Amino acid sequence: MGEMSSFQLGVIGALFLSVASSVSIVICNKALMSNLGFPFATTLTSWHLMVTFCTLHAAQRLNFFESKAVDVKTVMLFGILNGISIGLLNLSLGFNSIGFYQMTKLAIIPFTVLLETLFLKKQFSQKIKFSLFLLLVGVGIASVTDLQLNMVGTILSLLAIVTTCVGQILTNTIQKRLNVSSTQLLYQSAPFQAAVLFVSGPLVDQFLTKQNVFAYKYSPVVLAFIILSCLIAVSVNFSTFLVIGKTSPVTYQVLGHLKTCLVLGFGYTLLHDPFTERNIIGILVAICGMGLYSYFCTQENKKKQSGDLSLSSQMKDHKETAALLAHHQEKEGHEVKKAAKDSIV
Questions:
Q1: Which residue, 40, 48, 72, is CA-closest to 178?
Q2: Membrane spanning segments where (predicted)?
Q3: Domain ranges of the chain
Q4: Lowest pLDDT segment from 13-22, 147-156, 173-182, 236-245
Q5: pTM for the complete prediction?
Q6: d(CA 318, CA 343)
Q7: Under a CB-based contact definition with an 8 Å cutoff, are residues 56 and 183 in contact?
Q8: Who wins on pLDDT, 55 or 101?
């Protein structure tokens, strides 16, 4: 029971850290890009990952965690895939309307459910599916405005969905199958993710913004916000791997939509962004879906835990019965041998 309660506290802490750090970085990056005119999102992400790796390397040298050797090919492919997925999401935003980009992000949950069902044989109850449907409808109402389609943008969105889903499923699978912690996996894969984005980032950003990141004039305020963004990103990257490892890719996506609702709320409260009745209704529906998802997941986990406990108690009873029978048979054998010995005498 103690281990279970500590695990639940760990999950709650990971979820809280993920929400707090993600909302913080969105507000920081919005100020950096919208107010200060720094539009180089992909390059900024590569800097995030480089700072994350350097921070984890320093922590590992100070013995805050132990580095664990993982198959280099697996980690390299995993890191490259995650780097590509980030680049594709940014390209998808560049080639599509904001509404279609939001639809792309919404499509990640059902596609993840489909992949886990087909390839990992994971079962999702009808209640869980209904709560996810309600969540997606709510976020769609709150955030999706226009849906302008084009061929290149649609293809990029499909590729972004596939790579993101596979990357998040692998984040969970690798941690469990190779018995590595979220910190160890992030430490091993961050250099490969950073390398992909460090090379492709300036090209992608120049293509999307028609500006060169190396020709940009960096003021002290812009540099301060970039440093702040990179520091917050360490927490974002760490909590992402932590949440996916402790829960599931679907739960992480549900958490992502909670962040979307919070960002909309903070945008209205702090930045005075326009807020309509549609936004309010959508957020309320999404929160209802999230609440149902959390409730149904908790109920199913309790049933699973009680089933595991009853199974373990049955196995324990079976072992005790077998031990008693063995002891009884051994005792009877000794008595037979003693009787035979007495008759001979």
A1: 72
A2: 38-58, 70-93, 132-149, 155-173, 223-243, 280-296
A3: 1-308
A4: 147-156
A5: 0.79
A6: 37
A7: yes
A8: 55
